[in-house]
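ASSEMBLY PREDICTION REQUEST
Request ID: AP-0331
Submitted by: J.K., bench scientist
Number of chains: two
Total residues: 308
Priority: normal
Notes: Please return the full assembly, not individual chains.
Input sequences:
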Amino acid sequence: MGVPLEMRLTTEDGSAYTTTAGPTPFPDKAAPISGNFVLGVVDSTLIDGPGSQDEAELTANFSGPDGKQYVVKLIKVIPKGPVHPFSGGVATNIIQHGGTGIGTRMMPQVYAYVAFWGVAELSVDGEVVASNRLVHGMITDDVRNENYELVWSDAVDPSGTQLHLILPPMEVTPNGPQPSPLPTGFILPNGVEQPFLHIMFEDVSME
Amino acid sequence: MKRTMFVVMAAALWVLAACSPVVGPPPIAAASDQAAAGGPTGAAFAPGQRVGGPTTITARASGPDVRWILPGPRALDQPFLARPPCPWATTPIWAFLWRCG
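STATUS: Completed
Returned structure:
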C-alpha cells in the first residue's frame, strides 16, 4: 500500500497491520450530502507536454455536512504531471491507482472511464476562497461496498460508476504544486478545519 | 576414456548447434513493441503529440446520492500483511520466506 511502517497501527499482539496511524482522505467515513456536476472532456493528447490539446470543463455544486454551499470550477487542465504522467491533462480508458504508479496506492486499482488533473477555483457560500487549487477527478467503477467501505482492488464493482472529485491540500504555484491546507471552512469535531475535499457522486451518466 | 569424453562433448556441441535458431529475417514487431521503441518510423513520441482521434465525454449526476468523505484512517490490507505463527523451531530465514512471525 505504500504506507511507511512507522505510520501503520498493528493488532495488540503485533501480528497484523490494522489501519494507518493518522487520518487520510481515503477512509470508510462519509457524510451524505446532495449536489450535482457537469463534466465535459476532450482527450486529444496522450503524452504529457505543454502543447497538449486536452480540454476539460467541470462545475460541481454540493452542500457540506454543515449546510454550506460549495462550488468547484475547473479553470484549466495541467498538461504535465510533476510526479506521474497526467496523459496531457485528460485521460480516457485507463487503469489508475493500486499498483499502477498513477495516483495514490490507498485507492484500489481501478478502471477509469475518464480522469483529469487541473487547477480549480473553490467557492464557499458564494465567495471565492481559492483559485489555484490542485484538483483531480475521475469516473471509475464502484470502489465502495454497501457499507461505503473502500474495497481492495479485487472487489471493485464494474456495475456501478462514481465520480471522485478531490482537492488535496495542495496549491498550484509557478514552482509546481506546494502543500497548503484547502480553506474548506468545514470544522471537524476536533476543532480543526478539514484541509481537503473528497466528494463522491454516484450513478453518473455518460455520453 | 579421454577420447570417449571428447567424442561425447563434440557430439553434444554439434547437437546444440544444430538445434539453435536459424539465422533469418527478424520477426515482425508487435504494435506495442513498435510503440515502446518509438513508433514504426523510429521517431519518439513528442511531448504533446496527438495520438489517434480525440475522445469526447460528457458526464453528469444530480441528486442526493453524493458523499462528503471525512478524514479518517485507511484500513490496511490484512490478508496480505498478516503473519501467521511460525512452526516450532523455524529459523529466521524460513520465517522471512514463509512470511510467518
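REVIEWER COMMENTS: Chain A touches chain B through 75 residues (CB under 8 Å).
SIGN-OFF: pending second reviewer
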